[in-house]
Amino acid sequence: MILGIETSCDETAVAVVRGREKVADILSSQIDLHKPYGGIVPELACRRHIEAIGPLLTELLYRANCSLTQLDAIAVTVGPGLVGALLVGVAFAKSLAYALHIPLLAIHHLEGHISAVFLEHNDIPFPAVALVVSGGHTNLYKMPKYSEYHLLGKTLDDAAGEALDKGARLMGYEYPGGPVIDRLAKQGNAEKYPFTMPNREGLNFSFSGVKTALRQIIQREDKIKDDLSFHSDIAASYQKVIIESLVVKSIRALKQENAKSMIVVGGVAANSLLRQRMQEEGERLGFAVYIPSTHYCTDNAAMIAMAGIAHLERGNFAPIDISPNPSLALV
Ligand code: KG4
Ligand code: ZN
Fold first, then answer.
1. Prediction pTM value
2. How many percent of the chain have pLDDT more than 90?
């Protein structure tokens, strides 16, 4: 049984996984805490993690019908993320691992996101291409096999989730804006405001140009405040260009690497258009598409515990004096 702990950003999450299956999984979201500030306030995030983590663990063990002494290892996110937030999870995990005399497993947050897909699928054909698309990252990896990653491309400026969040904020919506845009876009006309596809060549992404274009449209139209159909059309058009850029580059990577399957993970993988477009392209071009259930796309601890299994199997244990690394690279 592996305990997973995730505190890299604005969710305090703990989970128990046994043999690649989730036993129990709970999460305390800080969204309401940060809403009035329009984004995450690191100091507040850190304090809330401290308050939440102990009671969450007690509740988790109750739900998992498991005692501390039944745990075989503790997997914790060590980076990247907010340093103060990471510190809470890492200090908590270190103390528990030391007291229980069990291995500590240091997990990269993005390896956690990728591992989410293996909670629900154990038959993914390799090589695979993994698109990791969240509020902080937009990366493409080649995975020749399970647990091996080679970076193929990344964003040169904003992450896709960040571009969606900032776009929603320009329209007057609160953080996180990604789900708001997803919802609004369902009633909107995506052809109404044609955005130019950014950075067409290669496998890197860029979203700052479309964000600037959005700001200009909003300033020009001057009816942003109360016109719901305007909001819906602009959300649909803006979402379309961001999602199409993700789809086009991912397929390019898949063809270039002769990959058999596409893995799509991270908070933005919860987006309904991205899920639909990837499935359509998979059917059209004949590759398998694997996307976690939406609750495993956003931050959670089951994915961290799942990533821990590979570390435990390899004997890849972290020293008890490990520190979090806010800018940790996966490869
Ligand atoms: O993976 P995650 O929970 O945290 C990070 O590691 O960043 O991702 C959060 C991001 C936010 O930018 C949020 O707006 C976005 O995922 N997101 C979505 C949707 N749900 C969450 N973006 C688009 N459509 C959604 N349905
Ligand atoms: Zn994340």
1. 0.96
2. 92
**Residue 81 — very low, low, confident or very high, per pLDDT cuts 50/70/90?**
very high
| pLDDT one-digit tens code per residue, 174-184 | 889 999 999 99
Distance 171 CA to ligand 1 centre (A): 17
- Pick the residue whose CA is nearest to atom 3 on ligand 1: 298
Whether 265 has a pLDDT exceeding 80, the answer reads: yes
pLDDT of residue 238: 98
* Residue found by looking up tokens 């998979």 in the block: 282
Looking only at the bridges linking them, the beta strands covering 2-6 and 11-18 are antiparallel
Give the rounded percent of residues in the chain with a pLDDT score beyond 70. 99
Cα dihedral: 191, 194, 198, 200 (round 10) = 70
Whether the bond between 179 and the residue before it is cis, its omega within 30 degrees of 0, is no
Taking residues 191-202, report their average pLDDT: 93
pLDDT above 70 (res 47): yes
What lines the ligand 1 site, CB under 6 Å?
9, 134-136, 161, 164-165, 176-179, 182, 266-268, 270-271, 298-299
Burial 15-35 (b: 16+ CB within 10 A, else e): bbbbeeebbbbbbbebeeebe
* Structural domains in the chain plus CATH codes: 2-114+296-314 (3.30.420.40), 125-291 (3.30.420.40)
Q: Considering only CA atoms, which of 47, 44, 42, 49 is closest in space to residue 13? A: 49
pLDDT for residue 244 is more than 80: yes
Q: Name the residue of 268, 274, 277, 296 whose CB sits within 8 Å of the most ligand 1 atoms, as the mutation to test its pocket.
A: 268
**Helix axes of 228-256 and 272-285: crossing angle, nearest 10 degrees:** 40
Distance, CA of 201 to CA of 245 (rounded, Å): 11
CA R_g for the chain: 20
Q: Rounded CA gap, 84 and 315, in Å?
A: 28
> Rounded to an integer, what distance in angstroms lies between the CA atom of residue 102 and that of residue 82?
26
